[in-house]
Specification:
With 154 residues, the chain is an alpha+beta fold. The protein has five helices and seven strands. It has one domain. Helix 2 packs across helix 4. The longest helix has 13 residues.
């Protein structure tokens, strides 16, 4: 796991004309199966990065994750944590969703990206309907609640 500053990442994300999006309520009391379902899509996710937008309160779970991976506890706007294997990806996504953080999650490969906020909403973005459906249908079938007709704008 690595930590770095990535100036412009969030600005580029916000300027990208995503064709499709779907938002789910983040099940804070049931995060482990939510994360496992996200990561169990058609293509296995090998690596990922999380870029911080806003940190509302001290991110205790992220700081514990940083300590376990001997990372300097730096975070804030446009700071990025990169996970280099599937287990790290799972740990990183679960810890970030657990804390009061707004962030961008970019998996590798990239059939979709996620923007999640501290208010408990996780939005999936994709440029093809099939890539979005790959994750949305799996989450819906697993009983996670989508937010119909919600469109996140920046």
């Amino acid at each position: 796991m690595t930590l770095s500053q990535t100036p412009g990442t969030l600005k580029r994300f916000r300027r990208t004309p995503w064709r499709f999006q779907q938002t789910f309520q983040t099940p804070l009391q049931n995060l482990e199966p939510f994360v496992a379902t996200i990561l169990s899509g058609r293509e296995p996710i090998h690596a990922a990065s999380v870029t911080f937008d806003q940190v509302v309160f001290e991110p205790k779970r992220l700081l514990a994750l940083f300590a376990r991976h001997a990372l300097v506890p730096e975070y804030g706007y446009d700071w990025c944590v990169a996970a280099t294997n599937p287990e790290e990806v799972k740990e990183l996504l679960q810890a970030t969703l657990s804390d009061w953080v707004d962030f961008l999650f970019i998996p590798t490969p990239k059939p979709f990206v996620i923007y999640a906020d501290h208010d408990g909403f996780t939005t999936f973005y994709a440029n093809t309907k099939s890539n979005l459906n790959g994750v949305v249908q799996t989450l819906t079938a697993s009983g996670f609640r989508n937010v119909p007709d919600y469109e996140r704008t920046f």
